[in-house]
Amino acid sequence: SKEKIALFTIFGGTGDLAQRKLYPSLFKLYQKGYLQDHFAVIGTARRPWTDEHYHEVISDSLADLDADQKDVDQFASHFYYQSHDVTDAQHYMTLKKLSEKLDAQYGLQGNRIFYLAMAPNFFGTIAQHLRSENILTDNGFNRVIIEKPFGHDYASAKELNDHLTATFNEDQIYRIDHYLGKEMIQNITAIRFGNNIWESLWNNRYIDNVQITLSEKLGVEERAVYYDNSGALRDMVQNHILQILSLLTMDQPVEFTEKDIDVEKVKALRSLRPLKPEEVATNFVRGQYGAGDDGVKAYRDEDKISPDSNTDSFVAGKIMIDNYRWSGVPFYVRTGKRLTDKFTRIDVVFKRPVVNIFNHEDVLENDDASTRLDPNILTINVEPTEGFELRMNAKAVGQGFATTPVKLNYSHDAEATAGSPEAYERLLHDALNGDATNFTHWQEVADSWKFVDVIQKYWDEHQPDFPNYRPGTMGPDAADELLHKDGHRWVYRN
Ligand code: BG6
C-alpha cells in the first residue's frame, strides 16, 4: 500500500507557513491516500489554543481547495494542539506523553517527523530537548525538517548545524529549499542527463553564458522584519539560486540517487570562483526600490522597515566556475522584489555560429552583432509557464534567402500541471519516504554561505546609493551594465 505512517510534530503550528503551505499539502497527501488512518499531527506554539479551535484553523486553511467538508473534518480530527514553550523542559514531557498516546491510538510504529517552522534561534534548543527528554523513538524513524533560513552567514549556519547534529545524523535532517520541490527545477536533471544533444553541448565550448532570473512583482509584504535583516542576497541567492546553479553545472551523477547527486552538487559549489573583496563591486550589483508612480511605496517607507535601511531588495551577479567544463562561462543571476512580473526562468545562451555564410561580406566589413547570426538559446521556464523554449535560426519563408530566428516551444499543458503536486506536498512526501534528494545537504549549505559571505561583508562595509530602481522595472541600470561590459545582455528585458 502507498500509505505512509507517521506522527508529525509541527513547531510553529499556529504560524503562517503551517497554514499556507503545510496543512494544505498534508491534506493533498491525505486525499491521494499517502496519509490514511495511521497518521497524526501535533501542532505546537505558545498560544493557548484548544483542539477545537485548531480544527477550525485547519479547516480554514483548506478553504481554497474546495474539498468535501466530511473529508476535511475527518482529516482535521487527526490534529492535536499542544501549547508549548520551547525552552521549558516540562513541556517536552507533556509532548512526549501525547506523542506516545497518539502512537498507540493510531498505530504509528514509532515513526516521527519533527517540522521546525519557526524562528531559527530556537532550532538548537528544540533539538536538544527532543534528545534529553527522550522524545526520539528507537522503534521507528526520526526525521527533522528545517525551514529556511539556515543561518544568516557561514558561522551561524555552522553553529546551527552543530546543534542539530548533536541530536540528529545528517541523514535524518531535511533542510527545505522549496525551489527543489518545483517541477521544472527537478526537470533540469531530466533534460540534461536524458538528452544527448544537451549534455554533449553542456560546456564552455558551446555555451556562451547562462542567466538565472527569479523575479518577483510584490514587495516585502508581511515579512518585513525578517526580510530587512536578510535582503535578497541571503533570501534568494544563497539558497535557491545557488542550488539551481549547482543542478545546472554539476557533472553527471553515477546514479540518480541522493548520495551521488549530493557529491556532484558539492563539487560544483566548491568550484565557484570565490570573489575577493575588491571584486565584489565589479561582479555584483545590489538594489533597493524607490517609490513608484502608481502609489507603490518605496522599500524604506514600507511598514516595519527602517527608514534608513540599506537592505538589498535586488541583487544581480556574475559567477564564474573554475573547472574544465565551465572555465570562461559567466553565470549571470538576478532576483528582486517589485520587478516587472512574477516569474522564474533560466536562459542558456549558446555560442553563435563562427561564420555567417549568409551575410559574409557584411560580417567581414563591420563585425557588429547585427550582422552575425543570433545565438541558440534554450530557455527553461520554471514559473508560471512550465516548459522549454529553443531559439534557432531558419530560412525566412519565400523567394530569396534570408535567415530569421524561430522558436520551438513546449509547455506542460495546464491540465497536467494543475493536478501536479505543489512544492511542499512533494517535499513532505519525500520526507515521509526517507528521500532527501530534493533537500539541501550540509556541505552544500556551507559552501553556498562561504561564497555569499564575501559579498555581504563587502556590502556591509560600504554605503550603497539607495534607492536605485523603480518598481515595475528589472532593477537598477547597473544590472544591465554588468552584462554589457562583457558584450552580453539579458535575454529577458523589460
Ligand atoms: C522564499 C523567500 O524563499 O521564496 C521569499 O523567502 C520569496 O522572499 C519566495 O518571495 C519566492 O518563492 P516562490 O515559490 O513564490 O517563487
TrEMBL record:
Segments forming domain Glucose-6-phosphate dehydrogenase C-terminal: 190-490
Residues holding NADP(+): 46, 85-86, 148
Enzyme class: oxidoreductase
Residues annotated as binding substrate: 178, 182, 216, 235, 337, 342
EC number: 1.1.1.49
Pfam families the record matches: G6PD_C, G6PD_N
Catalytic-site annotation from UniProt: 240
Gene3D superfamilies assigned: Dihydrodipicolinate Reductase, domain 2, NAD(P)-binding Rossmann-like Domain
Source domain of life: Bacteria
Domain Glucose-6-phosphate dehydrogenase NAD-binding: 10-187
Keyword NADP among UniProt keywords: yes
Keywords: Carbohydrate metabolism, Glucose metabolism, NADP, Oxidoreductase
Catalytic activity, reaction form: D-glucose 6-phosphate + NADP(+) = 6-phospho-D-glucono-1,5-lactone + NADPH + H(+)
Biological role stated in the UniProt entry: Catalyzes the oxidation of glucose 6-phosphate to 6-phosphogluconolactone.
Protein name: Glucose-6-phosphate 1-dehydrogenase
Organism of this sequence: Lactiplantibacillus pentosus (Lactobacillus pentosus)
Designated gene of the protein: zwf
